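ok so for the tutorial part 2 we go from a plain amino acid sequence to predicted structure tokens. step 1 is just haveing the sequence, like this:
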Amino acid sequence: MAQQQKPIGVHLTGGVNLPDAETVFRTLSDILGTRLRRVPDGETGIRRRWLGWQSDLLAPHPQLQRVPRSEEGHARDELLELRPGVRPEDLVISDIGYARVAIESYGIFSSLKAQGILPAQWRFQVSIPSAFGFTMMYVRPDMQAAFEPAYAKRQLEEVEEICAAIPHDQLAVQWDIASEFGLLEGLYPAYIGNDFEAVIARLVTLGNAVPEDVQMGFHLCYGDHGHEHFKQPDDIGLLVRVANGIVAGLARQLTWIHMPVPHDRNDDAYFGPLKTLKLNPDTELYLGLVAYGNHNDGPEGALRRVAAARTSAQISFGISTECGLAREPRETVTDVLRVLAQAAEPVA
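step 2 — the prediction. this is what the tokens look like for a chain of 348 residues:
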């Protein structure tokens, strides 16, 4: 394809399977450089287990305990519940780790940037799953209504701590939304039922919690289970509907939104609903058009999907993978990053 037909910019949704944050920053600088506006720390170490590490962190909490999941053969075989005698209004969660890790990783980011190793325009991106998403996947169903408010309160407190510790002109906050699509697709039940408006209200609350001068975006996702979604979406329609709901409810600017594209979809039927996407002019759209894992079909495959998306997208867009690269084999992570670099133009 002609050079001018390439998308402008690359977005990374969070996970990058490399040894540590410094290696992630240096590798992304070397391979993607000015194709990125924002950079995550790679969610290395225990955070590779996207929500699972939170369950492990909270298991020793004196007001909580883990119990076996009733369904046999489920990957997450334990659920959290309140200990007997603990009233929901008394549950206090004082640490979920996101602020501690973000502030530590920003120190590395800031030092490398001051040395000129990282591009000057980069912002540090903190990616956080929703409180509701964690609750519906890791808390016993009849305890979810009791648990969610305490966890959500602590989550927003940690966002405040992050924003107090990191200069706003260096910071971006991303909300990772995946479990909610399992609910809306009828796969994963939760205590609110399949209530679209209740989901949107929670997402809007998250977005509005980030200060206006901090960039803020959403990573909409159908998960990564062995490089497959938990459900292959019929088309991009539900993603567009959720994005439109977020935009309509926010009291602040949405900086970007990311949507996945299944590796085998480059047809008008999948992309058609993009015609109804209602983003503000300054909001960046990123589409997960680069395949990974055993589906990696190189820049040629990515650009085929780019061409298909252009038939329906009413605005320009950047490029991404379907989900993060936390579960990509470490030996092939850089291969995927190079495909992203080949399939996109720099933003500066």
